[in-house]
Amino acid sequence: MYLPDFVNHSNSNGLASLEGTGSSSSRSYVLRLLFVLLLFGGVSVGQSPFDGSWAKKVGERLPDGPLSYSLTDETLRCSCAIGGIEIKPDGYDHKTSETAYWDTLNVQAVDAHTFVLIAKKVGRTMFTEIDSVSQDGNTLTQMVKDTTEEATVTIETQSRRLAAGPAGSHAISGTWKAFKASRSLNGSLIKYTCTKDSFSAETPLGERYTAKFDGNFYPVEDDPGHTMVSAKLLDARTVELTSKRDGKIVSISRLSVAPDGNSIHAIFENRESGGKTAFDFEKQK
């Protein structure tokens, strides 16, 4: 449900889309969105400081580093959070290295300032990204629709141009740096319930899990990436969560409830990219 900031940008990571914020980084988008799901657990008998509904206090996380594109009539090359891709922009589905959330990519230039990228898994559309460059060529707006779940999550990212592309290439060509990103509310909320033995989490999109504090991994239901979660109780206000996919550890997150019980500070380590990010959430009344 992502990520990614899908094409994130992600990781997500389910999608935006595409972890994370927009731009070609769906995996990052999907990992980030899954991270929100994995973030919450309970640790005490009776009412837990984690119990309730939570929302991110700040906007969507921006992609790490610059994003690089080169688009001609023959090839789209992209070096970004989704990884290095090279594909013909002919509007057809092309097989790619399979990930948990897509196995084909489809790229088509709409006009001199806009192109569309569609990611599918077994024929099903998972992420759709529309990238549009302003008439002056200095601002890139990327709108990602994450359709990995029944309800669509949207992520919008705006970037400034750092360098121009080769003469005669599409307006998207060049290097960009994101400066603003936002996500629809349904992709930023979570509700969970905790007991002394386990914790449960559920998003408005339908993803949910119940994990016992026994060191075993438990499935995230309704996740097309088939993520598994293991929970470890560190103290009364701190939980560490480990997620894996296809038998491989993909992330470790640690969350701590503030003394006043109104916010959570979380640290997310992406084992796939090697990055580490901090998030803050506030309790919903």
Describe the overall structure:
By secondary structure, this protein is mostly beta strands. The protein has two domains: 34-61 and 189-283, Beta Barrel (Lipocalin); 67-185. Helix content is 5%, strand content 48%. It has one helix and 20 strands. It has one helix at 26-38, and strands at residues 52-56, 67-71, 76-80, 83-87, 94-95, 104-111, 114-121, 124-133, 139-146, 153-164, 174-183, 189-194, 198-202, 208-212, 218-219, 228-235, 238-245, 248-257, 263-270, 276-283. The strands form two sheets. Strands 14-13-12-1-20-19-18-17-16-15 form a ten-stranded antiparallel sheet, with helices on one face. The protein has a ten-stranded antiparallel sheet with strand order 4-3-2-11-10-9-8-7-6-5, with no helix packed on it. Mean pLDDT is 81; it is low at 1-26 and 39-45.
Main structural class: mainly beta
Number of domains: 2
Radius of gyration: 19 Å
Helix content: under 10%
Largest sheet: 10 strands, antiparallel
Strand content: over 45%
CATH class of the largest domain: Mainly Beta
CATH fold-level label of the largest domain: Lipocalin
Residue-averaged pLDDT: 81
Could you give the order of the helices and strands? HEEEEEEEEEEEEEEEEEEEE
